[in-house]
Predict the 3D structure of the following.
Amino acid sequence: MSNNSRKILMTGATGFVASLILPRFLEKYDMTLLDSRDKDSNNDFLPSIEVVDLSEGNQSSYSHFFQDIDTVVHLAYIRRSGPALEHFKTEKRNVEMAFNVLRTAYESNVKRVVIASSNHAADWYEHNLIHSHKKDMVDPYELPLSDNFYGWAKASYEHLAFLFATGALGDGGDGGFITTDNFLRGNSDTSRKMEIVMVRIGAPRDMEFDEYLGKPATFKRSLGAYISPRDLTQLFEK
């Protein structure tokens, strides 16, 4: 454990992205590690993991881990399976889990939440406009549009987090409470603002260049999405 007084809670701590950034974080911060399992992808037991189910709506089973935490890094993810239409059910659980993490952090007075989003939150633009040279890049403030349920879930994370970031957790701005004072001005600033950082991760895995022989467009796309473990760690750290 680091002597640094900053306390970080990380979800999905046995996952791939966590494995890239944890070595540095364990050196620098006082870490609390949560996951639904206590073994990594190599089936090695990790004794420092607290096993919890963050998709469970009953916050009492895990809310105590969020107490006195400065920053939450949310990496946890339930892997989808089956045909495409069935992916909705799994991704809906991921959205609910993101909400549970945001709400628990908010109610525990956590200052900042950093969430792993994805380039797939806006991959409709990539697949339909960018590769056909009708558009150069996606603007950070463009509406995130995806052509798959994985990207839909990541975009939903971003929309959910926006409410917490703008302090929009009061009543009135949705039109359901006409008599409230904030019916016209909306919900912004009706609650505590929690710092939110959404990190759209691209491709943090090593590239095997032999796989791209004769595929220049695919190589360009993969290289554009690539981020090294060092850079990914620095991105989350900063």
About this structure: The longest helix spans residues 87-107.
